[in-house]
Specification:
The protein is an alpha/beta fold. The chain has helices at 35-43, 56-60, 64-68, 88-97, 115-118, 130-143, 163-172, 195-204, 218-228, 245-254, 263-281, 283-294, 304-313, 316-330, and strands at 24-26, 48-50, 54-55, 78-84, 105-110, 148-153, 178-181, 209-212, 232-235. It is globular and about 60 Å long.
């Protein structure tokens, strides 16, 4: 059995008695982390899931599409809501309005590098304006009915790396934990996440730090925790089309063997995801969302690219599920004796 992962002892918020056991979190991602996908990730070992991040101004003004992102009613398991914005009063009002909704924590997005968010001075843009960030976090903490957390990056760019200053400020203002992606905003998702900086923040703060960046499987999960002693790890893009990453992480935490995901299970779970998205979003939008996950599925299987194209081109959810059923019946294309184009997902 592998040695247990090293974790730094931290000061846990007494309002979150469950936090000590939360190690594997699904990151908020626009167009990705809706209720159906959160449910699937929990099935494989995610301790907590976050909704798609929502505009505080949209919530304040009662935007129907924005409120649809807070799809937590009756949800089982731990769930967080993340909001973004640059207006402290809108952020405070959104926190107050969310007091009527089902959520365990309210997270503030200080890390999103996407241009349309940054142009509105939201997300990681606030790392370059610490006084405004301070007003925002203070306003949200003062108006939230649940504990507040925050997600940051290491800084705006290499000339403005200030995660230590921001992390200490967030702790002082009452955040229950800080999640840090180990890249600057300028890096976006390129280059390598700087785990040394995550490790430094872990040692600097008394509250838990959740690490984020470049974890793609159980082995990299172990390396990040061993390198940083972080309380837990948040997974973003690594979970798209691959909810089994949480099963690999759970195996590391529990000292068990990594799961062997069969081709049949991959097909079955993808079909379940299609059904869930269509039920939640409707036929057209649901199929569109699932196609974003399918683009990352079936990697390493013979004929995967051609099979994905057939799924994209299928006539609606029924056609997609029929193709998955057909591929499942043909068997694992990597099995001994399976000839490319004859017995794999690319067949027919």
């Amino acid at each position: 059995m592998d040695r247990p992962l090293p974790r730094k002892p931290t000061r846990l918020d007494p309002r979150l008695p469950w936090l000590g056991g939360v190690r594997r979190l699904l990151s908020p991602m626009a167009g990705v982390t809706d209720r159906p996908f959160r449910d699937i990730c929990r099935r494989f070992g995610a301790d907590m899931g976050f909704c798609e991040f929502a505009s505080a101004s949209g919530l304040t003004y009662g935007g129907e599409n924005t409120w649809k992102l807070v799809d937590t009613d009756g949800e089982e398991g731990l769930v967080g809501v993340q909001i973004f914005g640059a207006d402290p009063e809108h952020m405070a009002q959104a926190a107050r309005l969310l007091g009527t909704r089902r959520l365990d924590v309210l997270d503030i997005n200080f890390g999103c590098p996407v241009k349309k968010v940054v142009q509105k001075c939201g997300g990681s843009a606030l790392l370059a304006d610490v006084p405004l960030l301070d007003r925002i976090i203070s306003a949200v903490v003062a108006n939230s009915a649940v504990p507040v957390t925050a997600k940051i990056r290491t800084g705006w760019d290499e000339d403005k790396v200030n995660y230590d200053e921001v992390g200490l400020l967030l702790q002082e203002r009452g955040c229950a934990w800080v999640t840090m992606h180990g890249r600057t905003r300028a890096q976006k998702f390129t280059g390598q996440a700087n785990w040394d900086r995550i490790a430094h923040l872990v040692e600097l703060l008394e509250i838990p730090v959740i690490g984020n960046g470049d974890v793609v499987d159980g082995a990299s999960y172990r390396r990040l925790v061993e390198h940083t002693r972080c309380h837990g790890v948040m997974i973003g893009r690594g979970a798209m089309g691959n909810p089994w990453i949480f099963a690999e992480m759970r195996a590391v935490d529990e000292g068990g063997a990594a799961p062997n995901v069969s081709f049949a299970e991959l097909c079955d779970v993808t079909a379940d995801h299609i059904r869930g998205e269509v039920a939640a979003r409707g036929e057209g939008h649901g199929c569109l969302v699932v196609r974003g996950h399918i683009s990352r599925c079936f990697r390493g299987y013979p004929g995967a690219a051609a099979f994905r194209k057939r799924l994209y081109d299928a006539p609606g959810s029924a056609g997609m599920i029929a193709l998955l059923d057909e591929a499942r019946a043909l068997g694992d294309p990597r099995a001994a004796g399976a000839a490319a184009g004859e017995a794999g997902p690319d067949a027919g």
